[in-house]
Predict the 3D structure of the following.
Amino acid sequence: MENGPISVLIVDDSALMRNLIGRIVEADPALTVAGKAMNGAFALEKIPRLDPDIVILDLEMPEMNGIDFLKERRRLGLQAPVVILSSLASKGAEITMEALSLGASDFIMKPSGSASPDIRDVADSLREMIHAYGGQYRRNRRKERVPPAQPGPPRGAAPEPGEKKSVSYRPPGRFELVALGISTGGPNALREVFSRLDSGFPAPIVVVQHMPPGFTAEFARSLGRICPLEVKEAEDGDLLREGRILVAPGDRHMVVEKKPLSGLVRLLDTPAVNGHRPSADVLFESAARHYRNGVLGVIMTGMGRDGARRIGDIYREGGMTLGQDEASSIVYGMPKAAFEYGFIRRQVSLGKMAETIVRLVKDPGL
């Protein structure tokens, strides 16, 4: 139904979990359960008939598991986005990253049951992901069916920046650091950006990707397999080196410090900021304080406002700030807020983000 609720196909071998996820979905009147399947084989049979806007997929199932489902989905050219329900186990993290490499859009930790203390947070996050990925899929399909509009004002244009004192960009001799904050839609967006960097990239990159503990180490390893640079989960005291990408570990803030011989990262267990740990705001504030206008700050797809205020610290120091544009963002939340605050100097599409970062790092005056 093009104008009805976003339709969801739930694929899980546990009847209890199928019912629980079904209740979570239908608690939102803008969502509906199109159907349920107990494994990937049944899901593949139902997708042509149900035509769901999104699939919620378990990974470990009999007959056809989630990985085999994703491989067959790719072979068949099915387009509905897939969000993985995953556990915290180390093995689960590795399989989850494989699922992302096979085309899954994102993942969320599976609640342990209807009485689990984290059920409310999981429910809220799952509904947000369904709206983000399922909604985007539906909008894209609608665009394909609608004839091109007559020339006129651009639809969905980004709002004008709020009234903020303009601060001139002061290009440094070279950027000493790239600091990047990202959330929903991030796993695949980072795969696209990092796969397009070159081995001679002349600056360190520090990343806050909102992700639970237990997954960031494997996430970094998965990025390292497609990126010509070194990618690792940050450890306290790691050095900031050219051509190294450090990803903040789940449930720990990451800050940078500039020392006489080398910069390094510190990991903190201080309270969550904007509801997140790690927080992009925490990273951006430390980057601006230690590296001033020598920072290239990047804020990309994600819900909420994390990073939107403190990327302003980089802006006020005269550094360069990039925001992912609305059209290419899964959720135009964090970059939109930063843009509305007046802290984004350039809006860049996902497809141009790697090229823009490389060009600026190599020649900040461009």
